[in-house]
Amino acid sequence: MQKIRKCVIPAAGMGTRFLPATKALPKEMFPIVDKPVMQLLVEEAIAAGCEEIIIVTGRSKRAIEDHFDSNPELEQRLDNSWKFDYLRKVKNLNEMANIVYVRQPYPKWDGDAILRTKNLIWDEPFLVLFWDDIIDNEVCAAQQLIEKHEETNAPVIATVWVEEREVSSYGMLEWECSGNTTKVTRFIEKPRPSETDSRTAVIGKYVLTPDMFAYLESASSSVWDWEIRLADAFISMLQDRDIYGLEVEWTRYDTGDKVWYLKACIAYAMKDETLKHDLQDFIKTL
Ligand code: G1P
């Protein structure tokens, strides 16, 4: 079995829900206290054992590349002023992992973004982390997915349980249990609640196998202006091979949503002893 070494993070989307903030600033660079969301994702991939991170970017996303690059002028200033703690934080970013950037020229969905990494992945299973789902857990979700993949040698989709009213916002999985594994029997992209009894929703974390590229290539749809959707590729793949779902243990924040983004900021700040008490007192006054 091949070890999972590579992680793809699609990050070319426009961030419309956060306009005007996202006009010039990539949504992936929004901070959760003092770390951009993108850094939390890269840290998750590294914690799960990945050595190479492939970020799929687009126009006006240069800030992501700069964040993980060196900044000699800043480093020198921090060194000169003895701010070694900040210096360490800044320098660590350049050495975190081998980060490769691929451009997605048009926003043709998640499947197109993943397909653009084909020549970098080639024939290995790989991790995919969507930019907006961040975790807060001892064992990161990516690690849990990789362990399930090692057990099944198949694609694995991270899931969470959702309320009925949320069903139409997600890919939903129907599944059967055998032992402690959950085999997917049906993948339905954003159904009406009347179309499925399932409350098992797909979140943006997956382990994919390299045969997925062929399904993505045939999922290009003229109906959707040649967009390629990962969900369509999963639906055809399911006819040919086993796919597993894994309900991940974590506290999940969908940072693409304003309320959840703010909740993530508060929850992470409350874990910091230097911020916690002031913040708590302030919230009480609201
Ligand atoms: C995408 C997927 C969907 C999944 C969701 C998770 O939808 O198409 O299957 O449930 O991500 O965040 P999007 O949120 O991009 O509309």
Instruction: Give the biggest sheet.
Output: 9 strands, mixed
Annotated CATH topology: Spore Coat Polysaccharide Biosynthesis Protein SpsA, Chain A
Q: Strands across the major sheet, in which order?
A: 5-4-1-6-11-8-12-10-9
Q: Give the % helix.
A: 25-40%
CATH level 1 name? Alpha Beta
Number of domains: 1
Global Rg? 20 Å
Unreliable parts: none
What is the percentage of strand-forming residues?
Answer: 15-25%
| Overall spatial form | globular
CATH homologous superfamily placement: Spore Coat Polysaccharide Biosynthesis Protein SpsA, Chain A
Question: What is the CATH architecture annotation?
Answer: Alpha-Beta Complex
Distance between the termini: 54 Å
pLDDT averaged residue by residue: 91
Number of helices: 11
How do the helices and strands follow one another from N- to C-terminus? EEEHEHHHEHHEEHEEEEHHEEHH
How many strand units? 13
Bound molecules: 1-O-phosphono-alpha-D-glucopyranose
Structural classification? alpha/beta
